[in-house]
Amino acid sequence: MEDTPAENSPKLPVPGRRNILITSALPYVNNVPHLGNIIGCVLSADVFARYCRLRGYNTIYICGTDEYGTATETKAMEENCSPKEICDKYHEIHKVVYKWFDISFDEFGRTSSPQQTEICQSIFHKLLDNNWLSEKTMQQLYCDTCQRFLADRLVEGTCPTLDCNYESARGDQCEKCGKLLNPTELIDPKCKVCQRTPHICDTDHLFLELPLLRKKLEDYIDTMLITGSWSQNAIQATHAWLKEGLKPRCITRDLKWGVPVPHEKYKDKVFYVWFDAPIGYISITACYTLEWEKWWKNPENVELYQFMGKDNVPFHTVMFPSTLIGTGEKWTMMKTISVTEYLNYETGKFSKTKGVGVFGNDAMDTNIPTEVWRYYLLTNRPEVSDTLFTWSDLQAKLNSELLNNLGNFVNRVLSFIAKPEGAGYNSIVPDAPDAEAHNLTKDLGEKVGQLVGQYLDAMEKVKLKQGLRTAMNISSEGNAYLQESQFWKLYKEDPSSCAIVIKTSAGLVYLLATLLEPFMPSFSIEVLRQLNLSPKTYLSFSNEKGETDDTKKPWNFLPSGHSISKPEPLFKELTNEDVEYFRMRFAGSQADRKVKAEADAKKIAEQLKSTNITEANAKKQQCKPEGSPKAKPTTTEIPITKLDIRVGLIKKVQKHPDADSLYVEEIDVGEESTRTVVSGLVKYIPLEEMQNRKVCVLCNLKPATMRGIKSHAMVLAASSDDHSKVEIIDPPASAAVGERVTFSGYYGEPDSIINAKSKVWEKVQVDMHTDAELVACYKDVPFMTSAGVCKVSSIANGRIR
User: Fold this and answer.
1) 125 alpha-carbon distance from chain centroid
2) Dihedral sign from CA coordinates of 598, 603, 604, 605
3) Rounded mean pLDDT, 734-749
4) Contact 314, 151 (CB under 8 A)
5) CB 121 within 8 A of CB 108
């Protein structure tokens, strides 16, 4: 994750300061997180954590992967591995995705830790000692085929709720209507493992007696929902649970993967994931610092803010608080809860289970920058009702709000300052005395001061979308200010007024970098670079220092004489073609995309296989060694001299998002921009050997789409006869990028060739064309590479064979 401004040692609460403890719902490790997961928990919490640091609050942000429970066991069965292997795999995937999204955790841990077991079992013992637990015999579904009791998520059936009737409801909760269920309530239940119908058997379990804790719980809720300004959807969901009547809640499950129940009778069971998962916030903090109790048992000095999607609310406002209350200890209880509704995708709903929507790794592979994704998700944050992700809406917000509003303002100001003397200020922020006497500027200062006040008020109330909108309004005011001032005329006609306008505008750029840092940190870092300021040198808005009043004077934010760096565009337009491509690429489910990608790849392979590259007959006869076999007639003749093979430099390489065997490279072949090339070299060439490597690139092939990504050239490589070894054809080290080069020498050592095939290889002067020419002229003649004795047979699938 991005490094936070933490000290070398873990942060601890400081008496007399605001100490803010932030958590986001622990993402489950049964799949890659999709955009709905990201905006619903980790991204929203990250924005608030960054804001708190901006205000000078003593803040830590805790999160991690939720790793126990049925979903993990189910995924492990699907992938034929152990639950731990599943958790290890997806924990790393989550870390990579969140790092790319610039999520600034102070600690990103796991619930499968020794600390989790210790703290969870300790809380259980206190509940047991305080008589808040009971034993009950319950009826549970048992699968004779699998010979096991079925935990709730191992059962699917039709939701029994009136007017719902969702046919794929899980045994614990209906994904459609959100109602919490017991597996025995499902209509026509099926075992998810074998699809057989289970039957009901008796089994003993432990229950948390929520009805007995109700009075203490309601006292807590009544106080905190006002003090903490709970979001309306959190209040409604909580009151719905209370109104329905609290019932004893089972806290054990018949599983193997989980925190063991420390009780002789129940030693073969584990804790229900929704009993132990919220305790993960505590145990992950214990991984962060041995003095975790200073955060979690310090209600007088610590404020707890929790972020989640609406389906998680009852577990955080009823179950978890009841658990902590029942211990009889003095816990830091949740003050504020921020809840999001669902983010839907184009024509349906994001779903990890069904693979519908854009997932974290998908976003990474679009080449759309992180700050654009963060901005779009946050402007579209479903705070009050469900919102809809569409590619056309993403395009509109990027092009009109980021590019034409924010990017235009920043670039317009800095570019004018960077112009040489006589047209601008030679990259030096001008002096602007008497700025307060300039009426237009003074009016702007008043507006900006009011907007900053509104921004701070919205952010304190965790109204993140409103805070972002307010910050963007400052950019709009800046653009209007520039336009009304007509600074380009003032430069010649009224230089002192022009200097005031430009210095004030430069201050607004600095202010925007600061206010937008919680939302788009990579954007802010780039603006600071262009302002020639150190990273994270943001304006301070500490209440303790009374600095919020200074925002009415943006002309004071940057000193006169400060030298800026070279301005560059901050955003790139998203075209209609881009939108249509992404819409097609991410249509359907992940499974549908995989099937389509495999079909496309097969089709392309067949097309390549049917293509023959030969030289003209006269050339063939001229260069054919005596005794070599006659060339077979071909249907398509391409003169070898027409092949445009150049030296290329791989500037960037990554694995194809939808194909394990393919690399996607950005290659400089001496043109204005790099070419995107897809190559099937993953199994043969390590990723680190591909980076910044010179290669031979066939540039005038017709572009081909390889599993959703268009390839605009071909990297040439040689393979052994059985294709077990492959090596890239390297141009001379001195060859310039974009040039055709010549070199000479043996393709192999003559003695080795004689021993292998009893044929002597002649010394040749090789033009870059001749590599391909060998296909026609020296077919089946052996030559030597580091992969062993090889022979030229064909060009196909990006390799000379």
Assistant:
1) 39
2) positive
3) 55
4) no
5) no
Stated pTM of the model = 0.72
**Other residues' Cβ atoms within 10 Å of the Cβ of residue 240:** 12
- CA 717 – CA 800 distance, rounded (Å): 6
Q: Could you report the per-residue pLDDT of 337-365, keeping only the tens digit for each?
A: 999 998 888 866 656 555 567 888 888 88
Contact 694, 647 (CB under 8 A): yes
Indicate the helix (H) or strand (E) that contains 325: helix 320-326
How far is the CA of 244 from the CAs of 212, 239, 366, in angstroms?
A: 15, 8, 46
Q: What is the CA radius of gyration of the chain?
A: 32
Token digits for 440? 């237009």
Q: Specify the pairing of strand 58-65 against strand 107-110.
A: parallel
pLDDT given at position 317: 95
**Measured on CA atoms in the order 777, 780, 781, 784, is the torsion positive or negative?**
positive
Bridge partner residues of 298 (DSSP): none
358 burial via Cβ count (<10 Å: 0-12, 13-18, 19+) = buried
Per the CB < 8 A criterion, the answer to whether 33 and 360 are in contact is yes
Contact 138, 166 (CB under 8 A): no
Q: How far is residue 790's CA from residue 722's CA, in Å, rounded to a whole number? A: 9
Nearest CA-CA partner of 10 in 334, 410, 292, 307:
292
Smallest Cα–Cα separation from 454: which of 337, 338, 548? 548
Distance CA 750, CA 764 (A): 13
Cβ pair 122, 318 in contact under 8 A: no
